User: What shape does this take?
Amino acid sequence: MAVIGVGRWVFHLPGCRSLKAKRSVIRGLRERTILKFRVSAAETGLRDRASMSEITACVVSGERRHAESVLGRVDLFLRSDPRAHVVESETEFL
Assistant: This one.
């Protein structure tokens, strides 16, 4: 049976003073995440706040262990960007 892994990250973007600057950072993070890890990802919350954002990524796999591995690597990748500080994260498997 397929497993759906869902990861959600809330970011503080200290260098962003406008929505345009924020979207530039978040768009880059989202697009690099999709290309590097072959997951679905979107900006899912805090869209109207210039210094905060939320990204959700999903992976579908035949094994939970694989989905955990992919989301774990996504987590490390997102935490490594100095422009966006993770202030909250959660992972769920369906």
The chain has one domain: 3-93. The first strand starts at residue 3 and ends at 12. The chain is about 35% helix and 35% strand.
